[in-house]
Amino acid sequence: MAKKQGAQAQEKRAGAKSQQKKGAQTARSGGGGPVKFAKDVRGELRKVNWPNREQLRQSTAIVILVVLFLMAYVAAWDFVFRNVAGFIFG
């Protein structure tokens, strides 16, 4: 009985090593090539929840407003530092 259990355990280990080798070979070889990659990308893009036109407009408006605000903020600090440097190094 003990010999039988030992043999089964050895078979399991050999099977696990075989699976590890297969996984390593697949990882090294790229796992299916560019055709499989393109199919996988297409499948993932079908799962994406794309925004409708109104959501896109709102998001674009927010991005433009934030960029304008940050531009004004940086310009104001630039003006301050330029005048301070001009006063110091005159």
Automatic annotation (TrEMBL):
Coiled coil: none annotated. Keywords: Cell membrane, Membrane, Protein transport, Translocation, Transmembrane, Transmembrane helix, Transport. It is found in: Cell membrane; Membrane. One of its GO terms (biological process) is protein targeting. This is Protein translocase subunit SecE. Essential subunit of the Sec protein translocation channel SecYEG. Clamps together the 2 halves of SecY. May contact the channel plug during translocation. It is a single-pass membrane protein. GO terms for cellular component: plasma membrane. Residues 1-37 are annotated as: Disordered. InterPro entries: SecE_bac, SecE_sf, Translocase_SecE/Sec61-g. The chain crosses the membrane at residues 61-80. Residues 17-28 have a biased composition (Polar residues). It comes from Rubrobacter radiotolerans (Arthrobacter radiotolerans). Belongs to the SecE/SEC61-gamma family. It comes from the Bacteria. The keyword Protein transport applies. Component of the Sec protein translocase complex. Heterotrimer consisting of SecY, SecE and SecG subunits. The heterotrimers can form oligomers, although 1 heterotrimer is thought to be able to translocate proteins. Interacts with the ribosome. Interacts with SecDF, and other proteins may be involved. Interacts with SecA. One of its GO terms (molecular function) is protein transmembrane transporter activity. Its main location: membrane.
